[in-house]
Amino acid sequence: MLLACATSFAQFNVNLGYANSKETTKVNSEKYSSSLNGFTVGFGYTLELLDNLFFTPGVNYLFVGGADANNVGGVLNLKGDVTEHYLNVPLTFSYDLELAPNTSFFVFAGPTASFGLASTTKVTASVLGYQADTRIDNYDGDGYKRFDIMIGGGAGIKFADKYCFKVGYDYGLLNRIDSSNASEHRGQLTVGIAYLF
Questions:
Q1: Would you state the pLDDT for residue 125?
Q2: Cα–Cα distance, 197 to 194 (Å, whole number)
Q3: 104 and 96 in contact (C-beta within 8 Å)?
Q4: What pTM was computed for the model?
Q5: Would you give the end-to-end CA distance of the chain in angstroms?
Q6: Domain ranges of the chain
Q7: How far apart are CA 184 and CA 24, in angstroms?
Q8: pLDDT tens per residue, range 80-127
Q9: Confidence of residue 29 (pLDDT cuts 50, 70, 90)
Q10: How many CA atoms lie within 13 A of 145 on its CB side?
């Protein structure tokens, strides 16, 4: 069916935007969260399934980083900086509604397969003027899982069938940590632009 649609409409796009990743950890009845900021860049290929209904598979690279709010303070004045790299594969369905000639509003939704390429925490300890750094691979061992299935959606505006502005949010369905009394889920907000060829 998709191959048949490709003959009537197919459009390649490249995209770039801001990304915010928020991890929420629940241990027993306590909740903790940390937020990282960065960017996303990627490409997609849009196929028209029906009038104004489209399917867009894509591949996006996402980088986020920032201070780890759960690893700061203490006697040694610990400070942690986290950087994470993800490869995301969204499978998005969208519906367009024409607002004016060459301008349309659209909504989109679908699943995203997310794979963690790398995740590191740089821990800095300082006491009495002395400072020591160490870098931790968060994927070293089985405690922090790389893979996640996310579900999400959003909306945007398309101009002249060439330029697109969109906002989306995805929520991770899988528990990212291997623990019997704790769970961790990741949500990601993206705001970006795309150029359609």
A1: 73
A2: 10
A3: yes
A4: 0.85
A5: 22
A6: 2-72+82-116+145-196
A7: 6
A8: 789 999 999 999 999 999 999 999 999 999 999 999 999 998 887 766
A9: confident
A10: 16
Half-sphere exposure of 120 (CA within 13 A, CB side): 9
**Distance between CA atoms of residues 57 and 55, nearest Å:** 7
3-state secondary structure the chain: CHHHHHHHCEEEEEEEEEEEEEEEEEECCEEEEEEEEEEEEEEEEEEEEECCEEEEEEEEEEEEEEECCCCCECCCCEEEEEEEEEEEEEEEEEEEEEEECCEEEEEEEEEEEEEEEEEEEEEEEEECCEEEEEEEECCCCCCECCEEEEEEEEEEEEECCCEEEEEEEEEECCCCECCCCEEEEEEEEEEEEEEEC
Q: How many Å apart are CA 190 and CA 171, to the nearest integer? A: 12
**Third-level CATH fold of 2-72+82-116+145-196:** Porin (2.40.160)
Instruction: At 68, give phi and psi (nearest 5°).
Output: -85, 105
- Structure tokens belonging to residue 119: 């995740």
Q: Which residue has the tokens 């029906």?
A: 50
The residue with tokens 């610990």 is 78
Say if CB 116 and CB 102 are below 8 A apart: no
Q: Express as a percent the part of the chain with pLDDT over 90.
A: 66
